Every structure is written in structure tokens, then in C-alpha cells.
Amino acid sequence: MPAEFGATPWGKAWLRTIEPTAVSRPNPLLPKARSLARNAAVTLRTAEAGRLDAEVSARGVVHRVAIEFPCWSGELSTEVAGLVADAAPVPGDLPDGLEATLTRRGADIAAPAGERAADCGCGAGDGPCAHVLAVLYAVVQRIDETPALAVELRCRAPLQAAADPDWIPLSDVPVEGFYGT
Ligand SMILES: [Zn+2]
Questions:
Q1: What total number of domains does the chain contain?
Q2: What is the mean pLDDT of residues 120-128?
Q3: Which of 58, 144, 154, 157 could form a disulfide with 77 if both were Cys (CB 3.0 to 4.6 A apart)?
Q4: CA 71 to CA 77: how far, in whole Å?
Q5: Statement: residue 46 has pLDDT above 90
Q6: Neighbours of ion ligand 1 (CB under 5 A)
Q7: Residue 85 domain flag
Q8: How far apart are the C-alpha atoms of 156 and 65, rounded to whole Å?
Q9: Strands of the chain, DSSP E
Q10: How much distance in Å is there from the Cα of 77 to the middle of ligand 1?
Q11: Is the dihedral of CA 118, 119, 124, 129 positive or negative?
């Protein structure tokens, strides 16, 4: 059975920013965040380059979450878009091996936690609250389902598979219907 979160190298790259292996004590909010994501409490409204918007319902209250993070440089984005066009035969999917290739070229698949700015309507203080973490877990799951999303979140250049006339950029697909929510 594949891992519930991070079943692909693409999802795993984002998972590592939520669950860093180097910390001695796990974040006590993580079990709650996982449970929210697992129980479909997260609705992703926007998932685009540099930005995520979502709603998280917890105990009957809906919290709006916005997460911003840097994209790759324009030059790196163009290079990545070329590699993706060469490598991706199926819209939305990406070969697992491409993740290592992109990382080697300096394209970190996930924005490091320290470079993310997150805002949640719950008004919790410092550090990401369980709702922000739940959105990130939900993104890991979406990326596992549709690895191209990992690149779309970080890439400034439009993604196209030159050889594939049926390629549809994910940004043209309504998030809600597409993810079956
Ligand atoms: Zn919150």
C-alpha cells in the first residue's frame, strides 16, 4: 500500500518541509493536521505558482488559509519547463526520476518551511497552526495524485508538453471539480 502522504518523490519533497527528519521532537500539531487532511476538511481554492488558498473546516468553523512561497527564478523555471516538456508523456503526471533531475539542477521541489508565509483566520500566534499544516498535507496528497502540480506551484514559466496537443495546464482546470471534492 502506498504511503498516505508522500507516496511519490514529488509529494515527499513537500512532506519533508512539514515533517523535517532533523528535528528531535515532532510538532504536536501534526496528528491533528493529518486527520483534517485525511477527513477531507480541506478545500483547496487556489493552487498556483507561489500561492495556495484554502478553507479548512474544523469543529464547525471554516478557517481561511493563505500560503505564499517563492517561485524558482525565471531562468530556472524556463529550464524546468523544457525538461518537463521533454519528459512528461501524460498530462498531469511526471516520471519519478525527473524529481531527482530537477533537484540536481538546483530546483528545490518544495518551498522550504522558512521561506513560506502562512496566514490563517483562526488567529493562532507564531508558527503554522494545525489548519495551515492541514492545507500542506492536503497539497502533498494532491501532488501525489497529480505530480505536475509540484512543478506548477514553483515554476514561473508556462508548462507545455510540446509533443502533446492535449496537454492542459492545471491552472485551466477548476480546482474543485478536478480534485473530485
Ligand atoms: Zn489556523
A1: 1
A2: 86
A3: 157
A4: 8
A5: yes
A6: 63, 120, 122, 124, 129, 131
A7: yes
A8: 22
A9: 42-48, 51-58, 61-68, 117-120
A10: 32
A11: negative
The whole-number pLDDT of residue 171 equals 58
pLDDT, mean over the chain? 88
| 165 within domain boundaries | no
Q: How far is the CA of 125 from the centre of ligand 1 (A)?
A: 9
Higher pLDDT, 89 or 147: 147
Ligand 1 centroid to 58 CA: how many Å? Answer: 9
Distance 36 CA to ligand 1 centre (A): 12
Please check whether residue 136 is in contact with residue 41, taking contact to mean a CB–CB distance below 8 angstroms.
no
Q: How far is the CA of 49 from the centre of ligand 1 (A)?
A: 22
Residue partners of 103: CB distance under 8 A and separation at least 6: 13, 109
CA of 32 relative to ligand 1 center, distance in Å: 12
Cell digits of residue 56: 479548512
Give, in order, the Cα–Cα distances in Å from 54 to each of 40, 66, 67, 134, 160: 12, 7, 9, 10, 26
* Residue-number span of the structural domain to which 153 is assigned: 27-159
Q: Could you tell me if residue 21 is inside a domain?
A: no
Q: 167, 91 in Cβ contact below 8 A?
A: yes
At 10, list the grid cell. 514529488
Quote the ligand 1 centre to 121 CA distance (angstroms): 6
C-alpha 72 to ligand 1 mean position (Å): 27
Q: Is residue 164 part of a domain?
A: no
